[in-house]
Amino acid sequence: MAASSGTRSVRLLLLCLLGFCVALSHQESSSSTDSCATAKVAVASLVPFDSTSFRCTAAWKQQDFVLRYKNTGPSEWSFILSAPDKGSYVAVGFSGKGAMVGSSAVVGWASNGRGTVKQYYLGGKSPEDCTPNRGLLKLERNRSVVVSRSGRLYLAFQLSTDYPQPYLIFAVGPDGSLPQSDSLRLPMHQSMASRSFNYTSGMSYNTAGSSGDQGAFPTERKHGLLGMMGWGVLMPIGMITARYFRQLDPCWFYTHMAIQVSGYAVGIAGIVLGFRLNEDGLKNVDVHKALGIAILAMASLQVMAILARPDKTSKVRRFWNWYHHSIGRATILLAIGNIFLGLSIAQEISAYIVSYGVFVAVWVVAIAAFEMKRCYADDD
Fold first, then answer.
1. Which of 73, 95, 185, 230 lies at a CB distance of 3.0 to 4.6 Å from 267, suitable for a disulfide?
2. For the segment 65-105, what is each residue's pLDDT rounded down to a tens digit?
3. Angle at the Cα of 93 (from 183 to 107), degrees rounded to 5?
4. Which segments are annotated as binding site?
5. Binding site for heme b: what residues are annotated?
6. Which residues bind heme b (predicted)?
7. Yes or no: domain 55-206 corresponds to CATH 2.60.40.1210
8. C-alpha distances in angstroms, 325 versus 9, 240, 260, 281?
9. In CATH, what number does 217-379 get?
């Protein structure tokens, strides 16, 4: 009777997890009319350069900014910024330190079917300090255009540079308000954001002073640290307590349960953050997500298996033990591999990769030492 109740609980949990993952995936997929899922930019024929095989990222989700870019030649970088057309200007600036003041920006807008692209030097935070036709960017001549199509504004341009500056500053003007036709003075932006941008991985982080600033721990890093701690640290430690400390009965059992449930809770928090991340244009992210969902399902079976745990005297107890041990070890191995895959996708700093690698190495050595001890004990 208890086993039947446990089986029903496991089935109910799996159905809930499936609905949870589908709902979050649907939320992520319900994006704007332009997204990185589109293989070809909608105005490719109107852009004055070849826009095939561009990298793509949802650069500023709050304003639905989509950025495509590519190193198209020696000392040449091409960009296409897509944003909703609300009768305002859109801008992308390049900065060495993430500050608006002192940076240069490419600004574009469309009026009466005609697009305008200008470079501005951002000498201050007021409209008077933003000087048109000035700046430190080397724009390629006859390679800049603004196109309004299907409710979106496409700003395309090319820069002559060995490598663009590492911070991007995005801004959008007030709805229905364009720069003055004579002075080209920009109206005060209604919103702006500064991003630390990795051109290799396509990952961007909020910087200090921008909207939704998260300091040194952006959502991407929180997701990684929570997943690493829950699935990749606590659960392997919990496995060691169950396998090698059974002589401390019943302390080993309660310690094992406490560690595994804590790891499960922390891991779920990491997965929830993972579904909210900007994943557009990242390689292997689908594999990383699929492995994460598989790890969640397997870990859920492990946590719920306690409800279907037969008595020690039961004939099926040895099959339950085999199932519990096999699924647990497979979950941990998958989690470790997925953590390293996630660190690779995010192009994380080497300190995180090395630190976790050291932990895994120590864990493996500890298991080898405990197994040798068990073998010698059996021989005696």
1. 230
2. 999 999 999 999 999 999 999 999 999 999 998 888 999 99
3. 35
4. 223, 256, 288, 324
5. 223, 256, 288, 324
6. 223, 256, 288, 324
7. yes
8. 20, 12, 13, 38
9. 1.20.120.1770
